[in-house]
Amino acid sequence: MPEKEFIISQATRVVAEDFRNNILKNATEILQRDIQKVTTQKESDNEIYLTVDDHAAVEGDDFQINQSTDSRITITAKTSLGVMYGALAVSRNILKIDDFWYWMDTVPSVQKSIKWTNFDLHIPDYRTKYRGWFVNDELLLRGWKDHDSDRYVWNRVFETALRVGCNVIVPGTDVSSQINRNPAKSFGLAIAQHHAEPLGAKMFAREYPDLTASFIKYPDLFRKLWRDAIMDQKGTPTIYSLGFRGQGDKPFCEDDNSREWNDQSIADVVNGIIQEQYDMVRELDPEAPMALNIYGELAGLYRKDLIKVPDDVIEIWADSGYGKLVSRRQNLDNPRLPLLDVPNPHHRQRGLYYHVAFHDLQASNFLGLLSNSPEFVSSELTKAHEKHFDTLELVNTGNIKPHVLYLREAAKSWIDGYQARTNDQILDDYVANYYGSHQAEIVSLYKRYWQAIVQYGSHSDETAGDEFAPFMIRRIIKAWVGHREKMSDTGWVVGDVSLPEAVKKIDGLIEPKLPEWQSLVLDIKKLMLDLSEQDAKTLYGDLYLSVLYQANGLNAMHLVIQAYNLSMAAQKDDDYLKPFLLADEAYHAMSDIVFAQDHHKSTKWYDFYKNDGYDDMPLTAIKLKFLRHYLRTLGDTEDEDAWERNYIKTPGEARVMTLWTTSREMSDDHLAKKLREKLIDKL
């Protein structure tokens, strides 16, 4: 019997049974686009037909592919989502479109046409029932457009989520989630909700800006927001999130001074709200699943047996923010309570909220790679699945592009039979997929990233991500220039100590790692010269920037600490000259980060980092520029001409020079450059 075959070419049309079905419409457009990408020639006039059939011989969201005639392939499923998965399976397995093509700028192999013979494609056997992305802290995505459209960008978010196997998404935070909810549904994704936005309701403070966000004072206003949210989503695939947190994702009692709060009184309010929300969903959308995020303060209350949860609600437990399956540190409170040993006497289904990106304005990773290794993440996810925390898994994606390595591995972990993988296994697989040459060298460079990471705490997972350096730099400057005895918000790393003691401790953590980071920067730069243009672009965006954040950020902090120590010991004006030059170096180190972001090797990503309000490298550069001038103000004259006269001008010129007969004083940039030239041997 001759082998069945189907020729995919520019002449192949993708059509849907019902274009009123937005999910089928989007599936059609994606597959048609991908066919146009990878084929160049028109051959047989044929079609790929997408249809939903209640009688399809598959279960759940699986699909079947049949060659119904020589000129027609039919992709059939019982659900629209199943058809979408089928279209994407063709894209992935037959057309060879990478799941993260958009974020990694992968270029598919182009052919005249493609001979398709293997029609036995299926979704993987997933052990995780609800698999989702939590697109959170998405400042970069909010501030960026592609094809002059933010909708185009978010559509690629939804497409990628589906490609890796998601069936659930939290489509952003606050306003973003409201805007993106229906578009996400049009791709086939069920909607889950941010733990600070129960039921997907609008934030109280946004709707009622003049009122205190107190359920005690305004219960009916909260109830209206909840009911409106359910009515807006009822009848569509939704996993309702129950619970109650304060505005801006903090304990609600911080917004509510209506009483003195203790554990029991907090629990009483939360329990009452959970029951009200549960009853409201059962009334308005009776078949919908519900989940409770046991996050932040709720974790401690639950362990004290103070939180009451209906038995058919899925419990979602969260990692530390750094990937470790222990409770999250909140300020100085860091009990590190293990997640996986919490008793489950009611045998509730459990899930996991896991971070491969995190923002805590302290030491987390926002712009770059997670500071704990892929091997570490793989191990933690495997432990969670072994303990059956796998009914629902939400992976915090941040802004997706900086975190592809981890998002890819997390998606693999959802598949039945997944076992923890080593760094070698993960990186060999990853690099082979995204780089065409020098693969062993590139694997080595990735490994060196985690070897160079600063460990700020006593636990192996307490490692410093890209937020660490700019966070600390800004607080050192604030305390120093503000003549404060201590830095703010840093007790978690230095304890309750004076500013001099704090900077000494911080410098002791970072200084030994500086040579490793500088060496890694240089080695990546060298290798990029030998790579193809495509591979160089990939390495630049996926690893080089992550390394630069660490190398230049930590170096800038070290320089600031040196400048501080010398400044504190200054006895005369000229003793501020070297601190001035050190601050200048720190400023340029941070400015180089901003320049590297703005001049990405791929022009597509030039503006991607513009809305970074977390690491905020531009603000940190501004603070360092201010510090530089502050030190000049301390050491130079009121007219800022003494250093220029004494160290740059010739003796004769310096004696007769007056600012009003020659030229203005030098700028800080110009002065620093000239001072460094003149004093290089002495410095």
In words, what does this structure look like?
- The longest helix is centred in the C-terminal third of the chain and has 36 residues, at 533-568.
- The mean pLDDT is 94.
- The protein is of the alpha/beta class and 683 residues long.
- The termini are far apart.
- The protein has helices at residues 22-38, 80-93, 101-104, 139-142, 150-163, 175-185, 204-207, 219-233, 263-284, 297-303, 374-386, 404-413, 423-434, 439-452, 468-481, 491-494, 499-510, 514-530, 533-568, 577-598, 617-635, 642-647, 651-656, 668-679; strands at 6-8, 13-16, 47-52, 63-69, 72-77, 114-116, 130-134, 168-170, 190-191, 240-242, 290-294, 314-318, 350-355, 392-396.
- The strands form three sheets. Strands 9-8-7-14-13-12-11-10 form an eight-stranded parallel sheet.
- It folds into four domains: 6-97, Chitobiase/beta-hexosaminidase domain 2-like (Chitobiase, domain 2, 2-Layer Sandwich); 130-206 and 239-433, TIM Barrel, CATH 3.20.20.520; 450-635, no CATH class; 638-683, no CATH class.
Write the layout of secondary structure elements.
Elements: E1 6-8, E2 13-16, H1 22-38, E3 47-52, E4 63-69, E5 72-77, H2 80-93, H3 101-104, E6 114-116, E7 130-134, H4 139-142, H5 150-163, E8 168-170, H6 175-185, E9 190-191, H7 204-207, H8 219-233, E10 240-242, H9 263-284, E11 290-294, H10 297-303, E12 314-318, E13 350-355, H11 374-386, E14 392-396, H12 404-413, H13 423-434, H14 439-452, H15 468-481, H16 491-494, H17 499-510, H18 514-530, H19 533-568, H20 577-598, H21 617-635, H22 642-647, H23 651-656, H24 668-679
Parallel strand pairs: 2-3, 3-5, 7-8, 7-14, 8-9, 10-11, 11-12, 12-13, 13-14
Antiparallel strand pairs: 1-6, 4-5
Helix pairs in contact: 1-2, 8-9, 11-12, 13-14, 14-18, 15-19, 15-21, 17-19, 18-19, 19-20, 20-21
